[in-house]
Input
Amino acid sequence: RSEAKGKPSQSLSFFRFKMRTVSLTQLLSTCVDASHQGCKIIRAFQEKGYGEGKLKEEGDVRSVLTQADLDAQAKIIGSLRGTWGSELNIIGEEDEGESIPTFDGKLLNVNLLDDTSLQDEELSLDEISLFVDPLDGTREFVEGRLENVASLIGIARHNKTLAGVVGLPFAQDPEAEIVIHYGVADQKDSAGTWPVLKEKDITVDDKVVTVFTGDSKDDILRNATSCALNLAENTRHVIVGGTASKFQQLLSVPNSVAVLHFKTQLWDTCASESIINSLGGKVTDLFGSPLVHSPQRSFGNIFAVVASSGDKEASELHDKLCAQMRADTKAVHKVFGKWMGSSEPTTPQAVDAIRNLDGIPLSTQEIEDFVLEGRQGSLKGYSAPESGAWRGMMSNGGRLLLEWENNEDGKLPSSVFYKRIVMADLAHSRNKLTTAPHKLLRDVKSYQVETSFLTSRACQEGLIKGAGLKINKVFGSDLRPVASTLGAKEQLQSKFSILLDDFNSDDGWEHQWLLDETAAKASIAEFAKMHAYFWEGSNFWKMEGGQLAEELEAAVWENGGYMQPSLQGFEQYEIVAKGFEGRLPTFEEELKQIPELKDVDLVSIGKRLESLVAQAGRESHPFKADKATSDEFKRYRTLIHGDPKQANIFFRKSSQGDYEVGFIDFQWTGFGLAATEIAHHFSAAYLPSTLSYDGSKEMELLDYYYSCLKKELVRFGAASSEKDVEERVFPREVLQAQYEIALLDICRMVFAYAWRRWKAETEPTAASLNRNAYNKSTESALWLITRCHVLLQKFEAKS
Output
């Protein structure tokens, strides 16, 4: 990198030709310079009066093309390639047959942004593409509305906007004739101008939300505009020409939203999106899905575009508008019908979540190819009801209802479930990049574990066919993990999707918000089957000479479980007391009324637990601990689900009135202790009425689990008889001891971390279904604290 100010030397350019990486700030600096040169060409044409143009699309005035477009692009692309070399991938709006890149030998300036606070990084050339719109707003240029004209250069990496510049050739600013705006999408408040301008005071009525649109006559866009104006209390409508010009309004007008038409192209949006993102705003398509800036994409933003400033009111309006458009079934059918099939849906559709990993809606042909698996059938279409959609912190997706041409015998599934993880699109994952990068690496592996386990023979031939558990089958998957040897920032680009068999309510399957006693017993009976099937020494380990066991070992976590300390971070050991004391005021008055806590120093509970958590973590998750601990517990080793909360369990009543049980979500599946899983299950999934402060109901449930487990251990060859279980394989007192230390380990996780998301719910809601009992039920939290104290007393008495 050149240390000298001013223009880079010719040797820098020569070496860049030989290199595979470029500096972000230097590349962005040259884009500023290139855009400035493009702006000068545009100004020169306007000053000479050369504003005539021709239509690229007959009858569409928006497609007007002038010589200024062609010459500006030739200069921009030519100078960028001349500076960085031909390996730099650049996609321009105009056909390079008409706009041949020109380079006068004068290299672009790499130092224009040296005095800014931009964070630099090296970019691999094969990961980035530049999108160039040399003259955005050509119609406005021809018609003399010069304030709406811009010259755009966007930098995309991994098909997402990374950085960009927006050149304003007619800035109408007293400080500069030409102003270049720039920004880096993931660097907050990195947006700036070159040359640097004085900040201007903006007087705005913050009670009004401004909606910027063009003058399109498209019915869907007109309806979208009407919706936007009606969804907020106080709105105003302003018509603005030019794509970049609408985006620029969001930078200067707080509480603003822009709606753009279905014909914007990737070069129209890439640059401006990065600047809006850097200022806290967001850009999606009209239905709420992130934009995709891929050089392989043969079409533009065909799902239209919505953008909003970073203000709360504008952001809320953005989300409400996208939801309203997903509820516009006519619009959904018109836009998405070619993928979803011929029938117009009758309910709101989750068309933002049902996309493949390239951002394109799933097609009937894709689904048919996965689901039929050689069987006869023809998929007429599908719907993706909003009621079956899932938008979580770690994944998106939803239920697809399938309409088959011929399915009289009912052998083809009426629905499937689609799970999609594009980590760079998930705010929770992006936040982890800076706050907990080790968890980002963990999450990438968890998605691989889930698919590897569900498609393994151990699951399909063993657990489902052999043990009889109901687990959703994988119809198809698309896995694009980044190599585990690379860092967290690279792994953020990992993507996964899975098409799964569905536990559909039409087939009688349902969730419980928290489990009643009947459901609790049904679930632990199924866990007993799973634990026994994979128990150390069971028949499974001998199948096919141990080959299935080897495949399973390679597929899952060495020590599974979402709460496993090495997956959560050992720093939790040091903040248990602090976390408990911070949340204690929420429960303090109720805790004082519990007999088991009479005269107890409540504040001390967190400190007492913190002194024990290292031991609890080691003994509850021994197969990630030292070898001696692992060897000590190996005789009790089995496979655990890893996240046995109620949201991952479905129930269906049989004709006899008992429950069938189905399991989903195997991201944290791996080896562990059965007692650790049961402790997690009790604390996360049960209604408070299922448990008791004195531990008596726990004891009854543990006894029931043990009775089920004994039978299954005999059934699957891990023991010769139930007496053998009681005396040798897994005595009841061992289960009790392992359960008690595991419950304390769960308190570590809850006190130190999970209670940051505490939100009391007085009644069941769909929105809180996925949250654990200790994070939504006050009675459940009180039970956990009480049991923590009682068990601590027991351990303290022993020591």
Notes: The mean pLDDT is 91. Residues 24-48 form the longest helix (25 residues). The radius of gyration is 30 Å.
